[in-house]
Amino acid sequence: MGQEQVEILQRALKREKAARKAAEKILEEKSRDLYSTSQKLEELLDQKSSQLQGVFENIVDAYVVMDIQGRFIKFNEAATKLFGYDINRDEVNVVDLIYKEDYQYAMSSFLELQTKGYFKNYEARVYTKSKEVKWVHINASVIFDKNKKPVAAQGIVRDISHQKASEEKLIESENRLASLVVNLDSGIVLEDENRNIVLTNNKFCELFGINASPKDLVGLDCKVASEQNKILFKNPDAFIERMRAIDANKKVVLGDELEMVDGKILERNYTPIVIGEKSKGYLWTFTDVTLKRTYRKSLEAQKQKYYNIIANMNLGMVELNNNDEILMVNQSFEKMSGYTEAEVIGKNARTLFAAEDADILKKEREKRKEGISNSYEFKAICKKGKTRHWLVSGAPNYNIDGEVIGSIGIHLDVTDTKSLELQKEKLLEKLEKSNDELQEYAHIVSHDLKSPLRSINALVSWLKEDNQGSLDATSLQNFALIESTLEKMEQLITDVLNYSSVGADNSVKVDVDLNSMVNELVSMLYIPDHIEFKSLNVLPNIKGDKTKLQQVFQNLISNSVKFIDKECGSITIDVEDFKSHYKFSIKDNGIGIEKKYHDKIFKIFHSLKKSKDSSGIGLSIVKKIINLHEGEIWLDSEPNVGTTFYFTLKK
């Protein structure tokens, strides 16, 4: 190799060494730069990780991370609060949270997550740890490793339970409103700003005879529909002109009346719908007021009818205000008082008519103000100064708000009736005096009649004593007949006196224990051993005259004892409780009474079995006492079977 070549190679080697040193220097500088960059990147990564950790921890919505098997591996604080789980202690799988009815929807969404790598706007119900059900909104995505292999999934979970509850209430409210509109008793038509139907209801279709569903009318042009339906009205052209005028004016219209060909009367209302200054549509309502209008006409006719009756009836009618000023009188009152309506209108009724009884009218006015109705009498001074007795039936008069604005009185002139009452009172006084005199006379006559009887009885006794041992059997028998007749005569006089005394009901009525009274009576009466006496029910307490009630039971029980002819006799007393009366019965198994005598036995001096101790007045006294106690007496009897006496006494 030549020197020249060696030099060339040496120079080349020298240049290569110089280049290598330069390269090493550059590489060393680049290494230092790379290390510095690496440190900066590591610091930046730590910073970003810290920032992400802060976002993760402090995000308002729940943030969750789960592995491929669905096990949750990370919850932020919001997720822990939402679901109630602490994943540091609780092992939770996504399946544990799925609401049972939303399971299929959840599975399809997770399949979408696996296929697409994400899903959005997932809304479903979930269970919390306490088994509370909540609505949630979820956006989720898959997490991949550096080899693009899915290793986990993350999601943002928002609690939308309150939002869902509000939506459900809104839907429920809208449904109710829609149902209300559809079923209203008025026809409804809601139009948009172009007069196309937005909403209508069943009643509208019914009123206009439209054979279609309200839904089928949505979108229909109301102008066209009005032209088609105008033939339903008695005046079609007027119907169209009025509708156009209302639409052009765009102001609220209430109470328009439309008369239809079939006789129906509709009331039409119109309300424009304006939001801000912009028209958003129109609301028409149609109501069938045929019955109301017919009723109003009928009411007017009835009002006129009763006004005519009031104007011409024989009862005076006066309307007053709260100050007793006369507002109206009818023709009958004009006749009663002698005043014309013009003379009394505005006058004070108390001052005009009730000079003597002004306080009565004042008190009655206060009653009317309290809403009290009643009747009262007062002496009225008529136009010519003549005093008349008026019976007034007064009632408060109300306005439409229920406030008392005065009174209305119906007046009846009872002057003649009052005169008759005075006459009646005088007659009753005279009758009472006559009854007292008659009662006194009966006692005197009874005493005077018994005196000669006692004398005759004494004379017969003397004759028997003076001629003792010398009288034959026939004479003694005749004397016995005289004594029996005298005894019967004295009993008859006593019974007549008792009968006349029964009508004088001067005794004070008291509470009488009939059960105790009858028990005492039975213990005092002679009831043979072969007669059984029994009471089926406890007898009640009743208000009456104890002595007279005792006479009733004593007489009826004694009669039963007297007329029982059976070896085993029975007397049964019973009572039934009715609304205003007690019904008593005294039943025996005696000789009985034929039906033809059932009415006669209650008449005075009528006795079916003549005996010395039977005057024929006993049952007459019983009937009279029962009548005084506002009761009745009757019997049910069959000869040889027995008799049952029934009687009632007022409670």
Protein architecture, described:
The chain is α+β, with helices and mostly antiparallel strands and 651 residues long. The protein has helices at 3-58, 77-83, 94-97, 103-116, 161-183, 202-207, 222-229, 236-249, 290-312, 331-337, 341-344, 349-353, 358-369, 415-466, 473-502, 514-524, 546-562, 618-628; strands at residues 62-67, 72-75, 118-127, 133-144, 150-159, 187-191, 197-200, 253-259, 265-275, 278-288, 316-321, 326-329, 374-381, 387-398, 404-413, 510-513, 531-535, 541-544, 569-577, 581-588, 633-638, 642-650. Strands 2-1-5-4-3 form a five-stranded antiparallel beta sheet, with helices on both faces. Helix 14 packs antiparallel against helix 15. The radius of gyration is 58 Å and the shape is elongated. Residues 44-56 have low confidence and may be disordered.
Write the layout of secondary structure elements.
Blueprint: H1 3-58, E1 62-67, E2 72-75, H2 77-83, H3 94-97, H4 103-116, E3 118-127, E4 133-144, E5 150-159, H5 161-183, E6 187-191, E7 197-200, H6 202-207, H7 222-229, H8 236-249, E8 253-259, E9 265-275, E10 278-288, H9 290-312, E11 316-321, E12 326-329, H10 331-337, H11 341-344, H12 349-353, H13 358-369, E13 374-381, E14 387-398, E15 404-413, H14 415-466, H15 473-502, E16 510-513, H16 514-524, E17 531-535, E18 541-544, H17 546-562, E19 569-577, E20 581-588, H18 618-628, E21 633-638, E22 642-650
Parallel strand pairs: 17-19
Antiparallel strand pairs: 1-2, 1-5, 3-4, 4-5, 6-7, 6-10, 8-9, 9-10, 11-12, 11-15, 13-14, 14-15, 16-18, 19-20, 20-22, 21-22
